[in-house]
From TrEMBL:
<dbReference type="InterPro" id="IPR016040">
    <property type="entry name" value="NAD(P)-bd_dom"/>
</dbReference>
<dbReference type="Pfam" id="PF16363">
    <property type="entry name" value="GDP_Man_Dehyd"/>
</dbReference>
<protein>
    <submittedName>
        <fullName>NAD-dependent epimerase/dehydratase family protein</fullName>
    </submittedName>
</protein>
<feature type="domain" description="NAD(P)-binding">
    <location>
        <begin position="9"/>
        <end position="309"/>
    </location>
</feature>
<dbReference type="InterPro" id="IPR036291">
    <property type="entry name" value="NAD(P)-bd_dom_sf"/>
</dbReference>
Amino acid sequence: MSRTGGIVVTGAGGFIGSHLAEAALAAGLSTTLMLRYSSQGGIGNLVDLDPDTLSRADMVWGDITDGRSLARIIEGADAVVHLAALIGIPYSLAAPESYVATNVTGTLNVLEAARLAGVGRVVLVSTSEVYGDAETAAIDETHPLKPQSPYAATKVAAEALGRAWHQSFDLPVTIIRPFNTFGPRQSRRAVIPTIIAQALRGDGLRLGSLWPQRDFTYAADTAAALLTAATAGDIGLGPYNLGTGRSVSVADVVEIVGQILGRRLEVETDPERIRPASGEVDRLTADNRRFREATGWGPRLSLEEGIARTIDQLRRDDGRSDGHRRTDDYRV
């Protein structure tokens, strides 16, 4: 399979991947969306895109753990944004070997396929979890890397591979470390959709720890940043933090959701939802100045506006009859 120019998105059927696909197509880019094959032939969150918009994309099925299929998909691309990964922290504690196979070996395959194809830019999407517990109020890119879960450790390893391919083979790689992204299409296992879904059911909330603080970026803003990283001039290896610079606790999110819904939300602690202390990070707040200065990017939507839009989306999803949305809740 050969193509001329454009952008390839791995993990395109995922939460962030679907928003990036939407942004790339809206920008008029030739867009190839790589999806992991399943016998159901599903397209994940891409099902929510406008059919006319999605028809302009080239959808292909493959697996990042298969280097040969990657080589065929990436050949001829100008840029690759590598989002495909296993991401659940709790599951990484139960099945760490699968995370190494996907997040480490899979990333190696993406880098090598891009090198052989002469791709002009590879954007490796990492995570703020690589930092572990913050040693400063706002984390900049010089903060020590202290992964506290197998998931975070695999992302540190993926970054190291990206740096090695950049330095050893002159492959143009840019590493992006998003902090927490939220918005429509996110699994209800994630913290903000969990809170909203429970609140919309009208019952009291059952949550785990309320004190962890996170820096939440709306999905469309994250997608815009990744698209900027893929298409901007030479911004180098980075790494670059991606966040708003504002962190709030889980308790703060509960209060914001309650204010938007116009009622007080009662919370009951559910011990089953509390992560092991050894794997929980207390606070993550991005210092995003490096990426702002390199690209001019900045978040457009506030946390409150993004939560309001997410509430509207979940209300619409609850009215659907096709069973597309899962109703499982995350342990937070």
